[in-house]
Design a protein that fits this description.
The chain has two domains: about 1-200, Rossmann fold, CATH 3.40.50.1170; about 210-325, Rossmann fold (3-Layer(aba) Sandwich). It has ten helices and 20 strands. The protein has helices at about 25-30, 35, 55-70, 85-95, 120-130, 220-225, 250-260, 280-290, 300-315, 320-325; strands at about 1-5, 10-15, 20, 45-50, 75-80, 95-100, 105, 135, 140, 145-150, 150-155, 160, 170, 180, 185, 200, 210-215, 235-240, 265-270, 295. Bound molecules: aspartic acid (ASP).
Length: about 325
């Protein structure tokens, strides 16, 4: 099944030269090759296709609802999605679709399908082939992935790293799940093993959260104002290197009082590779002592979507355990 949500893949230039999404029936005109694949393809489209900058929990739930509704009938799902927030949606879906045993492959394009040099055609056709692949009669890739620019990546390990070139995504902390050349070569070791769990969908999100990126010279006012946001429930703190932050007393005291007042704080690194190790340096030891949760080697995209679901579904204090437990292969 193809789930079409929008993105550059199906965009066209309007009279003012601005790119806007169009409906899927027009895409099929550009893809006669789809008929040559020996696959039975069903297409479901968002009523109004959107630029992925407009995606959020409401749309994530809409995608999960479609997967749940057609889960028994379909061998796999390809979600056509804008690249800008694809890593967030793929991460959210990986946490939402508990017990997933079938492929959910996100893909899109850097150039609209209507352009002669577009990457859309190859991305969609290979994503469909991967979604339909079987291994001993079982789905070969039973997890939420991103297929883009010849590479299959674990969705929850991925970030958008490139806005111009065709290889738009990277997964620094986890190996590729497959590479597509003349053949599609699966990296069996890295792919999640199939189990027998029934699908269960988590749908509750807490939106009163923030991502706070540190920088040298960050002001006390910024930190204090962020923490004082009415109703704030959680923060993903983007720190330096292996999880380090200023050791000024106002900084530690602000975070500590936030945690005391029930705000969950998760530490992820600004480095795309490597991991948070609180306590390795003096500048991170106190974070551990005041109760900041280590996000290990999670991406920011994984950490924020996991935190939103954890707070929405379980709340305090269970969210702490949820954040440090690998749920969808997001943590080493
Ligand atoms: N702005 C577009 C989107 O994310 C970019 C893309 O699809 O590549 O929807």
């Amino acid at each position: 099944m193809i789930i079409y949500t929008g993105g550059t893949f199906g965009m066209f230039k309007d009279s003012s030269g601005v790119l806007k999404p169009f409906d899927f029936s027009m895409i099929l005109e550009h893809l006669p090759a789809l008929k040559q694949l020996l696959l039975e393809i069903t297409v479901i489209s968002f009523e109004t296709p959107i630029d992925s900058s407009n995606m959020g929990p409401e749309q994530w739930v809409a995608i999960a609802d479609i997967v749940e509704k057609y889960y028994e009938q379909q061998d796999g799902f390809v979600v056509l999605h804008g690249t800008d927030t694809m890593a967030y949606t793929a991460s959210a879906l990986a946490f939402m679709l508990q017990g997933l045993e079938k492929p959910v492959i996100f893909t899109g394009a850097q150039l609209p399908i209507s352009e002669p040099r577009s990457d859309a055609r190859e991305n969609l056709i290979t994503a469909l082939e991967i979604a339909a692949m079987k291994n001993n009669g079982l789905p070969a890739v039973p997890e939420v992935c991103i297929y883009f620019g010849s590479q299959l990546l674990r969705g929850v390990r991925t970030r958008k790293a490139e806005s111009q070139h065709f290889d738009a995504f990277e997964s620094e902390n986890y190996p590729l799940l497959a590479e597509a050349g003349v053949k599609i070569e699966l990296n069996q070791e890295a792919i999640r093993k199939s189990g027998k769990a029934p699908l269960k969908v988590l749908r509750k999100f807490e939106s009163r959260v923030a991502i706070l990126k540190l920088f040298p010279g960050v002001s006390e006012a910024l930190i204090r104002h962020t923490i004082a946001l009415p109703g704030l429930r959680g923060i993903v703190l983007e720190t330096f290197g292996s999880g380090n932050a200023p050791s000024a007393s106002w900084f530690i005291e602000s975070l500590s009082s936030a945690i005391q007042s029930g705000i969950t704080i998760v530490n992820v690194s600004q480095c795309p590779g490597g991991m948070v190790q609180q306590g390795r340096y003096e500048t991170s030891r106190e974070l551990a002592q005041i109760g900041v949760i280590s996000g290990g080697d999670m991406t920011t995209e994984a950490a924020i979507t996991k935190l939103m679901i954890g707070l929405g579904e379980f709340g305090m204090p269970e969210v702490g355990q949820w954040m440090i437990t690998p749920v969808a292969g997001e943590l080493s």
